[in-house]
Amino acid sequence: MPNSFDYTIDFEHTDFRKHPHLYRIGVGEQGVLLVEPYKSELLPHWRFRTEAEARHSAETIYELFEKYLLHHDFVGADMARKYLQMGFTRARRYANHPQGRKYAKGTLGATKDQPYPYSAGSKNKANAILPQAEDATTNEKARAAQVFKKYWDQARAHPEYQQQKLAFKEKYYHKKSPE
């Protein structure tokens, strides 16, 4: 599939700013910790321990998102969008499960023979989900998640982001017919 994230790329030696044609948007947060130089530019700003840290982090990452858009660097903008999304999902994980573990340890474990959603992701997906924290909707991490959610929603809906995403897909995902 043309939109599938390609994990066969040599990420250690690939500069996606110089080779944007190799980038695939993928699903969700795919590639967020692989695609350079964006990982090195965004990761140092990514924090969600407290609401205040999340606010500073999300504001900084969103500023970088807008800078990438201004420079017509869709890959950078999409990576910044992924960091905002990851801020939300990770903060929510810790809001729901303060220890960071969603699944109980057990012997079930997922196998490749099981149907989705057990066919991919955590080897513990077939195990029971641990109880949600009583204050999962109001605790510090929940508030941090809301900060990231606001900026993530803003990034996804940004008209220039939408336009550049469409142009990127048209340029790199569709084969041009011979003339």
Strands, helices and their partners?
Blueprint: H1 38-42, H2 51-70, H3 74-96, H4 140-157, H5 159-172
Helix pairs in contact: 2-3, 2-4, 3-4
Overview of the molecule:
The protein is mainly alpha-helical and 179 residues long. The chain has two domains: 11-98 and 140-172, no CATH class; 101-132, no CATH class. The chain contains five helices and no strands. The relative contact order is 0.15.
Concise overview:
This protein has five helices and no strands.
Class computed from helices, strands and strand pairing: mainly alpha
Number of helices: 5
Number of spatially distinct domains: 2
Range of strand content? under 5%
What string gives the helices and strands in order? HHHHH
Helical residue percent band: 40-55%
Radius of gyration: 18 Å
The main sheet comes to: none
> What form results from the Cα inertia axes?
globular
Which properties best describe this structure?
179 residues, mainly alpha, 2 domains, 5 helices, 45% helix, globular
